[in-house]
């Protein structure tokens, strides 16, 4: 193909993406046309030249990852997925933002092949990419061998001015620079426009200097239509392997629109029928035709996409040779890739005895982690500067650092928001099981990534300790009250708050076996007695969400139900009630979500409809418990923010005492 013809087809391809994007937005009468119009040359450089991918197998392990952190411009991504041959049809583009369409209003992982992560909330995609990069570095350090460069892919992203304003971006960028993640290549769509108008009204910092301070490799491309300059910058970024790269590209939102270029009006609204015609004229398209894709453009991009089959074939051949040379590592990776846990790992779960001294469930969690770590080499994680407090360090293993990417202990720094988003990127990488820890109160800083993990149905494990007023003297700022019900209210979350060390071991078992959504493990700071499993219900029943821990020999008059540290409290209350002739049942309920998955027969077994008197006890908000205690029951819970004092004083102040539980039970039973 002659050089000038090649250039013409490339330019026609870029303009085709622009026109496809405005047609889809106009047809939907909803969307963001301006970003794809300005960023199409960047997309072209990535999909046509630099990214390695295989449309026929979007999950090829060594593919480059692409993140559209500016998810509102998703027609850019959808257009290239269609053109390069992914499972995306022209009808999918025509059904943009419509019910049951694969082309949602922002890119959604699992909805359309080729979308590596759900984006939309700005800054999340940027931080997810850091997680992808960490996972790649870890896989490479663990599995790559001389002559077998199995994992050498890069993570590409297109980010926006809005991404650069969000705080999570700063957290993640700082971490990425510290870790020297040279596999990150981000293109910054610097179009100077946000919804309210020019970014100059709020955003006048020097982004390039900021990222240089983060120790990123920074380049500036002055003309967003100069594909040669963009390509050269991407090549330089690939060659820079010791630092993450940011390429600041000056673009023009709605490029090609005579009346809306460089205006906020092109950011979040269709251009309008007449303006669409003017754009098509500008780019040499028939203004009366819609969703037009020149044959030479489709052939050009499809041929590029087809090259991915050969790339994957070459990698598969390399992996076959790797299996002969390193059968143990190959088997380990294949099992992890398929989501299989090693045989016998559950045998490593520790058992705790009632004769053992009191133990905080955070400490029990640490013992469990260290007992199973050797059997689960793909279990990796850390905390937001709180490993000594959350007991999440894997003893005997290195920290993940630029000098030790095979390290299994992660130090996220005091960056809870970024930690959550980074965990999501790690969880989206098959072959690793990530966890991250902080205090339960600081789950508030992580809410966006928790929600996105639930939407994507991926399984990072969020570990939260210091779960109630039981943490004591740190006071109201650190004592969670509304966090349990807040997290439980998120669809597809599985929250587990174990009552003792043995329930904690089972909580980790359930978390590791769960694969369809995030798991939240909630642990205490204060020591708890270990429940006698020979006398009471078995902790293995935690997997059912709620189980009868202790029952009366006659039909119970009242059911006492609790989670976490309050289970021991209601066991003690049951003993007192028995002394005064009141029969009661104690139900440990560590997970509402697991309980709701049980059938009606099991639910009736635990909470018989004939037993109307029920009392729930939890050192958190009472919201939600009334579903289980019914109209004739009650809840002992928190309705304020706690106080700064020793835990024992706080439990007495707020009614978490045996005496108060007994009195409340008698009140419900109308016994004086």
Brief overview:
By secondary structure, this protein is α/β, with parallel strands linked by helices.
| Largest pleated sheet | 6 strands, parallel
What is the CATH topology of the largest domain? Rossmann fold
Quickly name the level 1 CATH class of the largest domain.
Answer: Alpha Beta
Helix and strand content put the structural class at alpha/beta
Mean pLDDT: 97
Please compute the radius of gyration using only Cα atoms: 28 Å
In what range is the share of β-strand residues? 5-15%
Distance from N terminus to C terminus (CA atoms, Å) equals 96 Å
Helix proportion: 40-55%
User: What CATH architecture of the largest domain would you give?
Assistant: 3-Layer(aba) Sandwich
> Which blocks of ≥5 consecutive residues have pLDDT under 50?
none
Q: Which strand order does the major sheet show?
A: 9-8-10-11-13-12
User: What is the assigned CATH homologous superfamily of the largest domain?
Assistant: Thiamin diphosphate (ThDP)-binding fold, Pyr/PP domains
| Domain tally | 3
Count of individual beta strands: 18
**DSSP helical segment count:** 24
Shape: elongated
């Amino acid at each position: 193909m002659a050089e000038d013809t090649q250039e013409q087809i490339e330019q026609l391809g870029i303009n085709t993406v622009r026109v496809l994007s405005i047609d889809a937005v106009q047809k939907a009468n909803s969307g963001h046309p301006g970003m794809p119009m300005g960023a199409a040359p960047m997309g072209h450089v990535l999909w046509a030249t630099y990214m390695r991918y295989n449309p026929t197998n979007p999950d090829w392990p060594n593919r480059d990852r692409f993140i559209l952190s500016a998810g509102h411009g998703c027609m850019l991504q959808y257009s290239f997925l269609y053109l390069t041959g992914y499972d995306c049809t022209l009808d999918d583009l025509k059904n943009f933002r419509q019910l049951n369409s694969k082309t949602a209003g922002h890119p959604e992982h699992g909805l359309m092949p080729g979308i590596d992560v759900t984006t939309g909330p700005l800054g999340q995609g940027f931080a997810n990419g850091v997680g992808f990069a960490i996972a790649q570095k870890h896989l490479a350090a663990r599995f790559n061998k001389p002559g077998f460069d199995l994992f050498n892919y890069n993570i590409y992203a297109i980010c926006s001015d809005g991404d650069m304003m969000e705080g999570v971006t700063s957290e993640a960028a700082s971490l990425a620079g510290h870790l020297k993640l040279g596999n990150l290549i981000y293109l910054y769509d610097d179009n100077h426009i946000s919804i309210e108008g020019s970014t100059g009204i709020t955003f006048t910092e020097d982004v390039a200097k900021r990222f240089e301070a983060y120790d990123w490799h920074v380049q500036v491309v002055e003309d967003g239509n100069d594909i040669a300059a963009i390509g050269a910058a991407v090549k330089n970024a690939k060659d820079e392997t010791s630092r993450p790269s940011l390429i600041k590209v000056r673009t023009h939102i709605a490029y090609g629109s005579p009346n809306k270029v460089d205006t906020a009006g092109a950011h979040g609204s269709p251009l309008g029928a007449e303006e669409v015609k003017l754009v098509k004229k500008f780019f040499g398209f028939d203004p009366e035709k819609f969703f037009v894709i020149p044959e030479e453009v489709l052939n050009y991009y499809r041929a590029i996409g087809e090259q991915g089959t050969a790339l994957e074939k070459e990698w598969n051949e390399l992996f076959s040779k790797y299996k002969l040379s390193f059968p143990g590592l190959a088997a380990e990776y294949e099992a992890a890739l398929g989501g299989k846990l090693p045989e016998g790992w559950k045998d490593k779960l520790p058992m705790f005895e009632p004769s053992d001294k009191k133990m905080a469930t955070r400490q029990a969690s640490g013992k469990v982690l260290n007992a199973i770590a050797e059997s689960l080499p793909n279990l990796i994680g850390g905390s937001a500067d709180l490993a000594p407090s959350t007991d999440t360090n894997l003893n005997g293993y290195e920290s993940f650092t630029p000098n030790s990417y095979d390290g299994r202990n992660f130090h996220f720094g005091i960056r809870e928001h970024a930690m959550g988003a980074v965990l999501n990127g790690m969880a989206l990488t098959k072959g690793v099981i990530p966890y991250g820890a902080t205090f339960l109160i600081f789950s508030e800083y992580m809410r966006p990534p928790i929600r996105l993990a639930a939407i994507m149905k991926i399984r990072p494990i969020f570990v939260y300790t210091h779960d109630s007023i039981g943490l004591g003297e740190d006071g109201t700022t650190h004592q969670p009250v509304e966090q349990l019900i807040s997290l439980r209210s998120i669809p597809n979350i599985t929250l587990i708050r174990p009552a003792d060390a043995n329930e904690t071991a089972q909580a980790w078992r359930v978390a590791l076996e769960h694969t369809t959504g995030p798991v939240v493990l909630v642990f205490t700071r204060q020591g708890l007695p270990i429940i006698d499993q020979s006398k009471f219900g078995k902790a293995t029943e935690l997997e059912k969400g709620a189980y009868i821990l202790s029952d009366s020999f006659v039909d119970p008059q009242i059911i006492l139900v609790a989670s976490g540290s309050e289970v021991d409290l209601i066991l003690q209350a049951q003993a007192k009630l028995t002394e005064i002739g009141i029969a009661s049942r104690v139900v440990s309920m560590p997970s509402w979500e697991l309980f709701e998955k049980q059938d009606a027969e099991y639910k009736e077994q635990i909470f018989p409809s004939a037993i109307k008197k029920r009392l729930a006890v939890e050192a958190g908000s009472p919201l939600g418990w009334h579903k289980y205690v019914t109209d004739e029951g009650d809840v002992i819970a928190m309705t304020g923010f706690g106080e700064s004092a020793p835990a024992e004083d706080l439990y007495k102040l707020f009614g978490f005492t045996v005496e108060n539980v007994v009195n409340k039970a008698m009140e419900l039973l109308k016994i004086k």
